[in-house]
Fold each of these.
Amino acid sequence: MRIIDTHCHLISDALKDDIPNILARAQEAGLTKIINIAYNLESSQLVVEHLKMSSMLYAAVGIQPHDVATYSEETATAISNIALNSNRVVAIGEIGLDAYFESTRKTLSLQQTCFEHFLDIACSLDLPVVVHVRNTHDEVFQLINKYSKKGLTGVIHCFTGTYEEAKQFLDCGFYISFAGIVTFKNASSIADVAQQIPENRILIETDSPYLAPVPMRGKTNEPSYLAHTCQFLAKKRGKTHEDFSELTYSNAHTLFKRLNN
Ligand SMILES: [Zn+2]
């Protein structure tokens, strides 16, 4: 069995002091690779530091919408250089647009500038992007559509939209990734969307420390819990746990080419 967690935040306060134990439990649960995702310059430096701890670890670097206040030309350039200098930085992320909170709605125009800057960086480094979308489908789609024509690929992480929205991203060549929410009883519409995503474009993730899947719901999430989401989606799609984990493992390696490093 080979499972890859394509999105987790081992750099978060909830997880960063317990990484060796978290990795041991992950391995026991069948995980062989984990992509540790940064939110800003400081955590982008930290995900690269963490690479020294285990060959299971890979990284993504960027500035996410909640940290857009830390964005400047200089911080973006520093992050770009981190990606350039480590061949186990597999993607630019997480980046994107968030209009869910009143606080994030206020920064939307700066978020747009930051997001577009990182899409340019990803294109110039020939790296895929890990994209956060919350109440911003149209705005994100417009940019992804534009950049996909320049050869950009990536994943919409922790997808919670409709199939029609997923289809727009799929048509741009993007992948769709599902987190623990898909297992929640009140989220059956997301599970239905996950059932319809083409075989070669689906990914799975924990987004730990957030959104632990059933039956761990409410606990601090960690990569080992991905086995529950994997099993849930395997059943939903009529596959064995092993076949579905292998499928998403192979998809991740097609998208994130540096996973082979
Ligand atoms: Zn995340």
Amino acid sequence: MGGGVRGAASGVTAIERDLMQLLGREAIQASVEPYGRDSTEMQGFRGIPDAVVTPSNTEEIQRLVEWCKRNGVPIVPRGGGSGFAGGAVPVEGGIVCSMERFNRVVGFEPLLWRATVQAGVTTQHVHQLARENGLLYPPDPGASEQSHIGGNIACNAGGPHSFKYGVTGSWVTGIQFVTGNGDVIQSGGTLRKDVSGFDIKSLIVGSEGTLGIVTAASLRFIPAPEKTVQLVVAYDRVSAAQEGLLAIYGNGLVPSLIEFLDGSCLALAGPSLPLSLPRDTEFVLICEADGSASTADEMADDLKAVLQADAIALEVISDPQQAAALWRWRSGVSFAVISSHGGKMSEDVVVPVESLTEMIVELAEIGKRFDLPTCSWGHAGDGNLHATFLLDAKSTTDVERATIATRALFEAARRLGGSPSGEHGLGWLKREEFEHQFGEAERELHYRLKRTFDPYEIMNPGKKFRMPAPAEPEVVVA
Ligand SMILES: Cc1cc2nc3c(=O)[nH]c(=O)nc-3n(C[C@H](O)[C@H](O)[C@H](O)COP(=O)(O)OP(=O)(O)OC[C@H]3O[C@@H](n4cnc5c(N)ncnc54)[C@H](O)[C@@H]3O)c2cc1C
């Protein structure tokens, strides 16, 4: 990208100078380096933006898009930078459009269970707003203090409670966004139902910034459950845990979450678990029952009855403080895993729920083949694993081996009827998987949709998938 050289006297690049004239000095970040990475940084993944803009209103974004169209410069939309696929990383330069100043709650009507927020409001802020008003906003991806609602929408983020409540898209009734052509589109709104047009907002959900920039969203809430009860269930065999999981389905029980940790993960994170497990524990399921006090208790009893047959231990936690300690521990699992070897490469593959343990066994086998320790944990109820290769992040050999091993992992997931990403998206790091995941007709449909929303191909190019080169014009010989 041209215009990236900083003037010795001004410390400003030509692109930044142009953008200052366009958007004002306060919309241009002087320090661009922090915007060159996201949560994939541990894999040494970084980019260098040509400029970082922090617009404060939709009209500024439109002006930015027009400028980028004219100058053929890509835009990389950025939320909180917590993504695990490199989607917000300016790998090939371009202008990072950080949504941090879009941080206002535009409207909140607690008695109608809904809010409209700007895209840069953090997930945690929305949770707090809901909680303080007796409501629940269920999507709960793990970096909620950092991630933005716009980033959650762009990735269709999930989290533990997706099992009962669904992923981000299920809670979005309207989205305002700016297309790659510079048009402002309001798709949906606060209406709970609306089928008068195509469901365009659902195309934006999960589009990873490749179709447009989300500027605001209308979200729906539900009344918060009165009570939650947690069950921690230990197994000495993976197969017994799989039977337990399927028994939950088979008995028609709907806990609000079903999480798991395998034996290798427990060996790393287990020592700080705030309860004791039998020594021969090889697998743990954590379930949560929620609802009115009586519904939650009844559901917990039913879960206990179904799960205890094959378990070697089962603990029921009703005390909120004990439950909070359990979830604090659960959110630290990823860090405990990292600290064991200095790094990890983790992929959020998803398989049909009945194949969960088969996928876990495949992961271990792939790890052996590539001489890398493995572990997994995640959202058992959705068949969604954080399938992890442990590595020394400073060792290029380890990183290279893990990169090849992840390809084998994706192949195994596909063989089991799954997909390379259940909730993080393909971003840059997994974009090659797009080719393997979809047939020609479906890929072509993606390309046509991309061109409709983003005719100049300036919106996060190269993320999720690579666009095919334009066809050579036919030479007509007279
Ligand atoms: C510790 C930890 C735990 C996590 N746990 C979970 C989990 O349980 N479930 C889960 O789903 N994810 C999880 N994540 C991943 C991450 O938090 C989510 O993918 C989140 O949705 C990313 O949001 P963000 O605002 O940080 O987006 P970013 O990382 O900034 O961007 C992610 C993608 O969204 C695009 N984007 C961002 N904002 C916009 C916008 N306004 N308009 C258009 N495109 C935009 C970017 O271009 C990029 O492609 C976890 C991450 C961490 C670090």
